[in-house]
């Protein structure tokens, strides 16, 4: 059953892009919305593949024209999802996956309350710091300025993780293969649920796997992550 909107968010460096890439290779009839951004391409990123890279005046012109489903400014750069991404997916009877930050996700949920929201966590603050440093090494070298950027991203990660309560599903990306399987199970489970049909034996397994990732069922895995960031659990109500 087509027409489901999936939102996936994560702190920078949590491995979200790798998860999304592998998900797209495993799941049919799922389109990926390529966001617009005013930041410069990194490493091997290509125009129209990871992002539509544009300049600030062009982005602001699109904002003025109400062409974005959501948009936000992060670390001094604009990011946004074009409305036409959703329209194009609906026209092709496909589900749509949005890779957006917590600000953008909140905007989309207000406009599309039945969107399925997924938050990806790093295993710990220390692990996230190591991933960010490794990415910086791959892109160049580690300098004093780089360390300042990493510290800023770690602080931002903490402020984003607090928002996990707004998401229906939580993934802790500690073992990539497991996280990919869980993400694919969430997509399958939501499709089965909305189809209204009786699931077969394998589909029941996928539903059970997805249920284990629901916010209310994932707290045992989430607690160590929160602790590493100096955060504490509160009563949660998933969306």
From TrEMBL:
<keyword id="KW-0547">Nucleotide-binding</keyword>
<dbReference type="InterPro" id="IPR017665">
    <property type="entry name" value="Guanylate_kinase"/>
</dbReference>
<dbReference type="GO" id="GO:0004385">
    <property type="term" value="F:GMP kinase activity"/>
</dbReference>
<protein>
    <recommendedName>
        <fullName>Guanylate kinase</fullName>
        <ecNumber>2.7.4.8</ecNumber>
    </recommendedName>
</protein>
<comment type="function">
    <text>Essential for recycling GMP and indirectly, cGMP.</text>
</comment>
<dbReference type="GO" id="GO:0005524">
    <property type="term" value="F:ATP binding"/>
</dbReference>
<dbReference type="Pfam" id="PF00625">
    <property type="entry name" value="Guanylate_kin"/>
</dbReference>
<keyword id="KW-0963">Cytoplasm</keyword>
<dbReference type="InterPro" id="IPR008145">
    <property type="entry name" value="GK/Ca_channel_bsu"/>
</dbReference>
<keyword id="KW-0418">Kinase</keyword>
<keyword id="KW-0067">ATP-binding</keyword>
<dbReference type="GO" id="GO:0005829">
    <property type="term" value="C:cytosol"/>
</dbReference>
<dbReference type="InterPro" id="IPR008144">
    <property type="entry name" value="Guanylate_kin-like_dom"/>
</dbReference>
<keyword id="KW-0808">Transferase</keyword>
<dbReference type="InterPro" id="IPR020590">
    <property type="entry name" value="Guanylate_kinase_CS"/>
</dbReference>
<comment type="similarity">
    <text>Belongs to the guanylate kinase family.</text>
</comment>
<feature type="binding site">
    <location>
        <begin position="10"/>
        <end position="17"/>
    </location>
    <ligand>
        <name>ATP</name>
    </ligand>
</feature>
<dbReference type="InterPro" id="IPR027417">
    <property type="entry name" value="P-loop_NTPase"/>
</dbReference>
<feature type="domain" description="Guanylate kinase-like">
    <location>
        <begin position="3"/>
        <end position="188"/>
    </location>
</feature>
């Amino acid at each position: 059953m087509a027409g489901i909107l999936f939102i996936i968010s994560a702190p920078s460096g949590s491995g979200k892009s790798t998860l999304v890439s592998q998900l797209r290779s495993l799941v049919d009839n799922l389109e990926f919305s390529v966001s617009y951004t005013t930041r410069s391409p990194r490493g091997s990123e290509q125009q129209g593949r990871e992002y539509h890279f544009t300049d600030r005046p062009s982005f602001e012109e699109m904002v003025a024209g109400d062409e974005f489903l959501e948009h936000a400014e992060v670390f001094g750069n604009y990011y946004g999802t074009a409305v036409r991404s959703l329209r194009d997916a609906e026209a092709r009877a496909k589900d749509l996956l949005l890779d957006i930050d917590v600000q953008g996700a909140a905007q989309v949920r207000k406009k599309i309350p039945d969107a399925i929201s997924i938050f990806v966590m790093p295993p710990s603050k220390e692990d996230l710091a190591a991933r960010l440093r490794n990415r910086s090494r791959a892109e160049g070298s580690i300098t004093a300025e780089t360390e300042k950027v990493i510290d800023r991203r770690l602080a931002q990660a903490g402020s984003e993780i607090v928002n996990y309560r707004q998401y229906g599903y939580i993934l802790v990306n500690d073992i990539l293969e497991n996280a990919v399987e869980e993400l694919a199970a969430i997509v399958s489970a939501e499709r089965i649920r909305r189809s209204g049909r009786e699931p077969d034996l394998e589909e029941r397994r996928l539903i059970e796997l997805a249920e284990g990732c629901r916010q209310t069922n994932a707290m045992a895995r989430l607690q160590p992550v929160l602790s590493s960031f100096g955060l504490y659990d509160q009563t949660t109500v998933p969306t």
